[in-house]
């Protein structure tokens, strides 16, 4: 077995040490999502409004960033972008690695976010836009005031998944030498050789954060869909009933069989 | 340093030789994950006491932690367990003789099983319960009804999710380079280490992954069309 003997005390010992780099991990996540939303909008709009050539470009962008592993994208941009910028005589050799990392994650997230935005906007009922026009809103007003809030509520679950996925993806930034949580874990290990304890502590921290994020987004979703639920609760909407589920039936037959065997 | 298109081609050709390793990791983890995931999904759907809670906790934990932590935990933790067990059994087997690839396969199967169980669960839940009732009404037993009626429809419903998981695991297989498995990512580093042309090598690797992904997407949409044939036409 490589490394030192297992000692559970190290797990607790390493929690605060790993948590000290949590800020950097969350910074990467925050900036990536923020910039990714920008990229996402830029890429989604040509496809939503069917702009001739740009539509094609954004299709290729999305296909590439969803079709290659994030790890390869990290290295590609880290090695490739400086060369590309050299052509326009911009020197980026002194730029911190973190910039490349954030850029990669935001381009990666941007591809997924653009698909999310596209799906969310298309999911908003067409009548909503027509109604907005009928009360005299301009195209921009209708989009910002009517479509976007609804699209946001619809796509919140996807957004939550994406944020959590980005959080977990940041664990790869250590491969470029960024000192986020996984990088910190690697250095702790080189010092002490306590592999398993460190990774357990690391996994627990990631788990707690993603679990907390999930709960927060669930609360937010409930809040945002309040208007929708009230309507369905009172049964005003026609034909929107929960599809009969297999789970319910399975549970019921299981209960019935149980009752039979007892009798 | 200028971009060297010739080296992209050289790297591309050399990377082709390790595609089988990447595909093996992907296939084993997805198939293994699918089998274990189906078991987990059934445990949760039938609400088996204790086991279903354990299954739910397992799925939440695995999905809440990065794939690389699973890999590293297995890689560093499993040998100790294997050695302890084989020692207590008096066997001469030691963890040193386990190939690196095995650790990657085990770890990725664990990762995939959690994601797959959710795919399978959602697929099964998407099947109309009337289908099961109809199967019961013509005298099928539960295993028969599940196998002949529910599973085929659930498979059709979860095909898009399945192909997404497959692509996710394909991309995840790049992590195997951290435990010294030579797949596409590691090979790209090896190829580039001779002449420092990392960008060209990674570009070639990216092209291969892109191609594989597009291929999987195309195949999935073909199969989806084929598998949903029964759903075509009619009044519904």
From TrEMBL, chain A:
Residues 18-217 form the ABC transmembrane type-1 domain. It is a multi-pass membrane protein. The keyword Repressor does not apply. Its main location: membrane. One of its GO terms (cellular component) is ATP-binding cassette (ABC) transporter complex. It holds the Pfam family BPD_transp_1. It is found in: Cell membrane. Keywords: Amino-acid transport, Cell membrane, Membrane, Transmembrane, Transmembrane helix, Transport. GO terms for molecular function: transmembrane transporter activity. It comes from the Bacteria. The chain crosses the membrane at residues 22-48, 60-81, 93-113, 146-167, 199-220. GO terms for biological process: amino acid transport. Belongs to the binding-protein-dependent transport system permease family. PANTHER family: L-CYSTINE TRANSPORT SYSTEM PERMEASE PROTEIN TCYL, MEMBRANE COMPONENT OF AMINO ACID ABC TRANSPORTER. This is Amino acid ABC transporter permease. It comes from Cohnella thailandensis. The lineage of its organism: Bacteria, Bacillati, Bacillota, Bacilli, Bacillales.
UniProtKB/TrEMBL annotation, chain B:
GO terms for cellular component: ATP-binding cassette (ABC) transporter complex. It comes from Cohnella thailandensis. One of its GO terms (biological process) is amino acid transport. This is Amino acid ABC transporter permease. It holds the Pfam family BPD_transp_1. GO terms for molecular function: transmembrane transporter activity. The chain crosses the membrane at residues 12-43, 55-78, 98-116, 166-186, 198-216. It is found in: Cell membrane. It is a multi-pass membrane protein. Residues 19-220 form the ABC transmembrane type-1 domain. Its main location: membrane. SUPFAM superfamilies: MetI-like (SSF161098). The keyword Transport applies. Belongs to the binding-protein-dependent transport system permease family. InterPro entries: AA_ABC_transptr_permease_3TM, ArtM/GltK/GlnP/TcyL/YhdX-like, MetI-like, MetI-like_sf. Keywords: Cell membrane, Membrane, Transmembrane, Transmembrane helix, Transport.
């Amino acid at each position: 077995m490589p490394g030192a003997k297992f000692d559970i005390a190290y797990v607790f010992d390493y929690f605060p040490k790993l948590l000290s780099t949590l800020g950097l991990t969350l910074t990467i996540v925050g900036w990536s999502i923020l910039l990714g939303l920008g990229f996402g909008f830029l890429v989604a709009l040509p496809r939503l409004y069917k702009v001739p050539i740009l539509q094609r470009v954004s299709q290729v962008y999305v296909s590439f960033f969803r079709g290659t592993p994030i790890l390869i994208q990290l290295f590609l941009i880290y090695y490739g972008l400086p060369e590309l910028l050299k052509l326009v005589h911009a020197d980026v050799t002194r730029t911190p690695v973190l910039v490349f990392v954030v850029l990669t994650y935001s381009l990666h997230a941007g591809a997924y976010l653009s698909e999310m935005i596209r799906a969310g906007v298309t999911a908003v009922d067409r009548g909503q836009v027509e109604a907005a026009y009928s009360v005299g809103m301009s195209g921009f007003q209708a989009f910002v005031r009517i479509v976007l809030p609804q699209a946001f509520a619809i796509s919140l679950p996807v957004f939550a998944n994406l944020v959590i996925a980005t959080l977990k993806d940041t664990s790869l930034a250590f491969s470029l030498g960024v000192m986020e949580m996984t990088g910190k874990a690697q250095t702790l290990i080189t010092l002490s050789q306590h592999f398993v304890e460190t990774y357990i502590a690391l996994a627990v921290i990631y788990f707690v954060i993603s679990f907390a994020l999930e709960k927060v987004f669930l609360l937010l979703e409930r809040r945002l869909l309040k208007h929708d639920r009230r309507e369905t609760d009172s049964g005003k909407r026609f034909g929107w009933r929960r599809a009969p589920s297999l789970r319910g039936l399975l549970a019921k037959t299981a209960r019935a069989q149980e009752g039979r065997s007892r009798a | 340093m200028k971009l060297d298109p010739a080296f992209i081609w050289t790297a591309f050709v050399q990377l082709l030789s390790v595609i089988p390793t990447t595909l093996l990791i992907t296939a084993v983890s997805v198939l293994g994950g699918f089998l274990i995931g189906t078991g987990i999904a059934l445990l949760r759907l039938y609400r088996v006491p204790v086991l279903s809670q354990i299954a739910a906790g397992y799925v939440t934990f695995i999905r809440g932690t990065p794939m690389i932590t699973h890999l590293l935990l297995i890689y560093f933790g499993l040998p100790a367990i294997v050695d302890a067990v084989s020692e207590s059994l008096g066997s001469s087997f030691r963890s040193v003789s386990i190939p690196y690839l095995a650790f990657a396969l085990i770890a990725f199967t664990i990762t995939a099983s959690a994601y797959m169980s959710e795919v399978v669960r959602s697929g099964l839940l998407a099947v109309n319960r009337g289908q099961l009732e109809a199967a019961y009404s013509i005298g099928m037993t539960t295993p028969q009804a599940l196998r002949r009626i529910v599973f085929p429809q659930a498979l059709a419903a979860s095909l898009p999710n399945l192909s997404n998981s497959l692509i996710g695991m394909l991309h995840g297989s790049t992590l195997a380079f951290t435990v010294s498995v030579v797949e596409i990512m590691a090979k790209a580093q090896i190829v580039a280490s001779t002449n420092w042309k990392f960008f060209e090598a990674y570009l070639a690797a990216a092209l291969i992954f892109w191609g594989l992904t597009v291929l999987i997407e195309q195949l999935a949409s073909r199969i989806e069309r084929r598998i949903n044939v029964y759903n075509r036409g009619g009044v519904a």
